[in-house]
Amino acid sequence: MIMSNRKLNVFLPLLFAIVLALGMYLGHKMPGANTGAQTLLFTRPSRAPLQEVMDLLKIKYVDTLKVDDLQEEAIQGLLSHLDPHSIYIPPSNLQTVNEDLEGHFSGIGVEFNIIADTVNVVSVVSGGPSETAGVQTGDKIIKVNDSLVAGNNISGDKIRKLLRGPKNSKVTVTMLRQQKMTPIQIIRGDIPLYSIDASYMVSPEIGYIKINKFAGTTYQEFMDAMRKLTKAGMTKLVIDLRQNPGGYLDAATRIADELLDDNKLIVYTKGKSYPRSDYRCEKPGLFEKGGLTILTDEGSASASEILAGAVQEWDRGTIIGRRTFGKGLVQEQFDLSNGGALRLTVARYYLNSGRSIQKSYAEGREAYDDDIMNRFNHGEFVNSDSIHQLDTIQFKTASGRVVYGGGGITPDIFMPFDTSRFSNVLTSMYSRSTFSNFTYQYFSSHKDEFKRYKDATDFSNQFQVSNELYNAYKAFAVKDSIRGVESIKPHDENEIKTRLKALLARQMWSYAGFYESLNKDDEMMKKAIQVLNKK
């Protein structure tokens, strides 16, 4: 043992010398050894040029810059070279965007309308904080806490920010009611943002459901509506997806599962970094049998197209209306350190036959945004022969019918757009909110006259716009600087009376009353009923 230690003491200095010489030799041969640069075995990754530029601007630029604004512009510039649905959401907008899809927000629970610089309470959410505190339809909001809002050039966004706040927080709203100022303390609470506007029985057999978006609560809302309609005797169904911009993929596939049987493929997604993922029917649905029609138009997009497309692919029902928007991309939202978010396209979705309905964005975002107007100018809204099928590849449904991809869902039955609805006088009335302003004021001063209608169905069947009411509206329109009131054509008169009736129904029963009344004279709805009655 002593002998071994002696040998180690002799050879240890020699070993150190060899290692030192080897290290010097390798160091001489490494990159940068002869350039004066320091070479490290582990180097930190260099900053990207974009970050280098931002750092130099912050430190060296001659003037003080709003760096956050510059960063947002740089992000927007990057995204402008991608697809039109990859977007940056600033921190100031993120809460509102998320609330819309989550299906609720924290506030006081009123719907308001700004008329002549005054905030008017149009409706009060049933069971909500405002109703509990005693707020009534017709009240005028004068102050929110210490902030004067009446006659102060208040905007919708400003009043919403004042009224919304954390759950269980208190806000004092000063109301003007019958010429008396009344301060009302309201405890904010969760306010639902419903994605199903209306569900009612059109006839003893036919039910109707209007879906305005696909949010986190949509599936449960749909199931509640279906159970109610089924209990009322529904054996045939109209689903209205017009002007539905889409939303959560999961909400659309779960509803499709209620309409399709067996293990049918509803849709699948795949992308460069996302392997194929199939969405199939997983359980017995609530309405796998029975007549089904789906109403679509150029505003039906994304998740709406998944639901309509799945029904069309499996020949489960009839699609009625006009060609849909054409969005076949899937976005995922990523939170950013500044409080904003990036909604990035990560995959495409494909229907059962393999068709994608995403329209081309090769010509840039401006051309993409102009597509709907180009369709209108091309005549597609009024003539099915003008529909330009962008995808030359034909696909087939389960029964062998030919369908097309590459630009939306083409309906099985085309319904033209009524261009006569937008005469000069009607366009002015819509743009100036003449209809809604008049109906609010008229209803507020004639509430007792509407108490005799027990529900929206009774109102829809019984109420007629009288000559007295119609003339009162025309007088209001003249005061509102609408030109051409004295020479209104019969078609415009019918449109005015239909709109007035629907908006009065909305005053009493919100959107459920609005759509039940409006659909009475809707041509697309009439066609859906005709198709279902034939089946």
Automatic annotation (TrEMBL):
Keywords: Hydrolase, Protease, Serine protease
Record GO biological process: proteolysis; signal transduction
PROSITE patterns: PDZ (PS50106)
Alphabetized GO MF terms: serine-type endopeptidase activity
Cytoplasm is among the record's keywords: no
InterPro entries in the record: ClpP/crotonase-like_dom_sf, PDZ, PDZ_sf, Peptidase_S41A, Tail-specific_protease
SMART domains per UniProt: PDZ, TSPc
Family listed: Belongs to the peptidase S41A family.
UniProt name for this protein: Carboxyl-terminal protease
